[in-house]
Amino acid sequence: MRDEQIHEAIAILNEAVKAWVSPAVTIVATQGHDPFKVLVSCILSLRTRDQTTAEASSRLFALADTPQKMAHLTVAEIEQAIYPVGFYRVKAEQIHAISQSLCDLYQGAVPEDLETLLTFKGVGRKTANLVVTLGFGKPGICVDIHVHRICNRWGYVKTNTPEQTEFALRKKLPDQYWIIINDLLVTFGQNQCTPVSPRCSTCPLYQLCDRVGVSKSR
DNA sequence: AAAACGGGGGC
DNA sequence: GCCCCAGTTTT
């Protein structure tokens, strides 16, 4: 895909996602934009399906929906609430530790800047950028495995890691798409441009896509 | 029964 | 760079 074709690709994607029910970022649809909830839900979502994440978030936030309340729960209580999300033990410890840090060091508020967010254990670039964009409505590029895979399949970027994709997109992608790119591509990635056997024969972006590294498709 | 799965930390 | 973390869904 050539650089100037990104506008056309995004326009096609905007139409295509209307056909799919599940919102890409279930977090916001079910839990709202509160930065603390976005942060916690995003941690819960790692290697875990949307619906499982949403249900676990609801159970946890019923017990504690602020850093103050969360810090007063025990790790065991958090574990019990979030089971069966993947890696529930590590996640429970991370959520507890982050909540305590927020109370002790940041007056119980979630920091708004990327660099501070990245200092927390359990918060990497994907999570931090999601908090910045969804939680605070500020520009950011949240690159998960779908964004990384699809941008490389298109041939729009040529990178080896999601972090490299984030930096490449930050340079190339027009500002107006920064916040929506994750939402669009996650939905597209779940329904059409799947990791294994993508549905190329029915893809609305077939002509724009280089299909880099696609061996099997349907 | 395998493979696949919406990252991140520790080393 | 490599290995670990876990339960669920898809093939």
TrEMBL record:
CDD domains: ENDO3c
Cofactor requirements of the protein: [4Fe-4S] cluster
UniProt-listed GO biological process terms: base-excision repair, AP site formation; nucleotide-excision repair
Domain HhH-GPD per the UniProt entry, residue ranges: 44-191
The keyword Phosphoprotein is assigned to this record: no
UniProt keywords, alphabetically: 4Fe-4S, DNA damage, DNA repair, DNA-binding, Endonuclease, Glycosidase, Hydrolase, Iron, Iron-sulfur, Lyase, Metal-binding, Nuclease
Gene Ontology molecular functions: 4 iron, 4 sulfur cluster binding; DNA binding; DNA-(apurinic or apyrimidinic site) endonuclease activity; lyase activity; metal ion binding; oxidized pyrimidine nucleobase lesion DNA N-glycosylase activity
Family note: Belongs to the Nth/MutY family.
The protein's name: Endonuclease III
